[in-house]
Design a protein that fits this description.
elongated, about 0% strand, about 75% helix, mainly alpha
């Protein structure tokens, strides 16, 4: 259950950073943080998420769905 909460939290953090980057892109204010900062956070969060899922599958905490074949 803890893994699921962490995954949902990371996905929410990704969406938050994507929305922040969208607002910064639309405002185009040179005094604010750049859009690439938030896009970079989103990419790093997705890398952490993929590594967490792989680690969970390898350790047996997460069981993937069986193959339909």
């Amino acid at each position: 259950m803890l893994i699921k909460i962490i995954v949902v939290g990371l996905l929410a953090f990704m969406v938050y950073n994507l929305v922040r980057a969208l607002f910064i892109m639309n405002k185009n204010d040179p005094n604010k943080a750049s859009m690439s900062k938030f896009i970079g956070r989103r990419v790093m969060t997705s890398v952490v998420l993929v590594l967490l899922l792989l680690l969970g599958i390898l350790t047996g905490v997460i069981t993937p769905n069986p193959s339909p074949y």
